[in-house]
Design brief:
The protein is 24% helix and 16% strand. By secondary structure, it is of the alpha+beta class. It folds into two domains: 178 residues, N-terminal domain of MutM-like DNA repair proteins (Alpha-Beta Barrel), CATH 3.20.190.10; 130 residues, Helicase, Ruva Protein, domain 3 (Orthogonal Bundle), CATH 1.10.8.50. The strands form three sheets. The protein has a four-stranded antiparallel sheet with strand order 1-6-7-5, covered by helices on one side. Strands 2-3-4-8 form a four-stranded antiparallel sheet, with helices on one face. It has a two-stranded antiparallel ribbon with strand order 9-10. α4 crosses α7. The structure holds zinc ion.
Length: 330
């Protein structure tokens, strides 16, 4: 699954199109009617965790004021100006994203208040893009078949959505899920591992709970953008066994784990911009850098998603369980 750094890269690709009008649309998406985006303006692009949020607005002239304290009729020009200004300001996502946040219940939960095939009238028009396992964004070119299918045909992948912009360029979205959302992005930057506002205290508290740290790391409420690769790499670098209950780890070890999460993610992002491949030490490896045999197992909370996990039993030993009766003999 594209993790936070990949989605940031997609955001970087999309950003130059902000401020441009969609002049032609295409794509196979049935859930989202691509033609509904015709003539809309891409006004903002934000990334929150593993999701990309794109804001589309109709032409300035036909913007209907949303219900607000200023929506009652105003007559003189000056007030009209003021009202327009107020609306623009209140439209800024950062405005609504400040202050208290609703922490989403999880990354993969059903999207809330999803509209039909067109932007909900009056509501904010945020197109929420999730990239699933193989999603991608292409700029000014289409993805080509890398190999023949079972029938021997070289069929190019079909984009879900294609947006041609007034500036002449286009974006093609592949294998992603898209839905209109009636509210601005609500993922708190405090839980985004790549945000400057990432809240370490909140993350440390969550990690310190009495459950395996490898489950907590994938909890998008506290580690938005953290995926399976980062989980495996950070645990290896911190020398922590994936099934260690966080409550058994001291404050310093939890701090070190969070440091590795942030450092690995930031390094990955930096590498993406420089065209470097992220180097992994344990993820999908047979041996750790010290040459030990790596163990692989699907781990996850009971009834939850089980994710393949790689660890080195020597570099990441299991802690002896706490409790007087389980203290190892001297
Ligand atoms: Zn090892």
């Amino acid at each position: 699954m594209p993790e936070g750094p990949s989605v940031r890269r997609f955001h970087h690709l999309v950003s130059p199109f902000v401020g441009q009008q969609v002049v032609k649309t295409g794509g196979s998406s049935k859930k989202l009617n691509p033609a509904g985006l015709q003539l809309l303006w891409l006004q903002d692009a934000q990334v929150h965790g593993k999701k990309l949020f794109l804001r589309f607005d109709p032409d300035e002239e036909i913007v209907c004021p949303r219900s607000s304290p200023l929506s009652e009729p105003l007559h003189d020009e000056e007030h009209m100006e003021e009202a327009r200004h107020h609306q623009e300001v209140s439209d800024l996502p950062s405005q609504s994203a400040g202050g208290a946040h609703v922490v989403p219940s999880g990354d993969d939960g059903p999207p809330q208040c999803v509209g039909g095939d067109s932007p909900a009238g009056g509501a904010e028009r945020w197109l929420q893009v999730s990239f699933g396992l193989f999603g991608s964004v292409w700029v000014n070119e289409f993805s080509r078949a890398k190999k023949a299918n079972k029938k021997g045909d070289w069929k190019d992948p079909i984009p879900r959505l294609v947006l041609h912009f007034g500036g002449g360029g286009f974006l093609a979205f592949y294998n992603c899920q898209m839905a209109w959302s009636c509210s601005s992005p609500v993922v708190s930057p405090a839980s985004d591992i790549l945000s400057e506002k990432f809240h370490r205290g909140q993350a440390l508290e969550a990690l310190g709970r009495d459950q395996p740290v490898c489950y907590t790391l994938l909890d998008q409420r506290y580690f938005s953008g953290l995926g399976n690769i980062i989980k495996n790499e950070a645990l290896f670098r911190a020398g922590i066994h994936p099934l260690t209950p966080g409550s058994l780890l001291g404050a310093l070890r939890l701090e070190a784990l969070v440091d590795h999460v942030v450092a690995f993610s930031a390094g990955w992002l930096e590498g993406k911009f420089q065209g470097r491949q992220q180097h992994t030490q344990i993820y999908q490896k047979d041996r750790c850098p010290a040459g030990h045999q790596v163990v692989k197992e699907a781990l996850g909370p009971p009834g939850g998603l089980q994710r393949l996990t790689w660890w080195c039993p020597q570099c990441q030993p299991r802690l002896p369980a706490a409790g007087p009766e389980q203290v190892q003999p001297p």
